[in-house]
Amino acid sequence: MTRTRRRAAHDTGEEIWERVVATGEEGASMEEAKGDLTEAQWNLGKRWIKDYKCKDEEMSFARFRDHYFAGNEQEKSLYNLSDIFKEIDHKLARARRSLLEYLPPEAIGTYRVQLAFAQVDGILDLLDPMEKAGYSYDTAEEIYKHLEDEERADQPRAKSTKQPHGTTA
Do 131 and 100 fall within a single domain? Predict the structure, then answer.
């Protein structure tokens, strides 16, 4: 059995980033982006890119239709994000069914389990509009813009004073 030399996340991340950036608009297939990295090095490098490199470069790192891209293209970023939401939605629904629903009644009545149900259900409720739209931001926009237009016609909305996360007034 041959052992692969351990490499720092920074090194593998930079290697992946350089390969992806070099492909430009076409993007890099997973095989192109991964190169000769092991699965563990590949995953570690991708995490490093998302945690550090994107911030440093002020660019997204997105998987779009089986290719990886570095850039600031809204469609690719939202497509990747919708895949992530779909995965979270399915994992949470499965976890609710397999971990919580079949607990004995005395456990379900406890505060801890009720809190777990509330947390899972709250997240699933937040993901519900995306699920109804087939995890498509285009479809969600059509559905909810139409509903928003109807609501706006019924009642004027107050302007929000809340600032986006990480910004100051």
Answer: yes
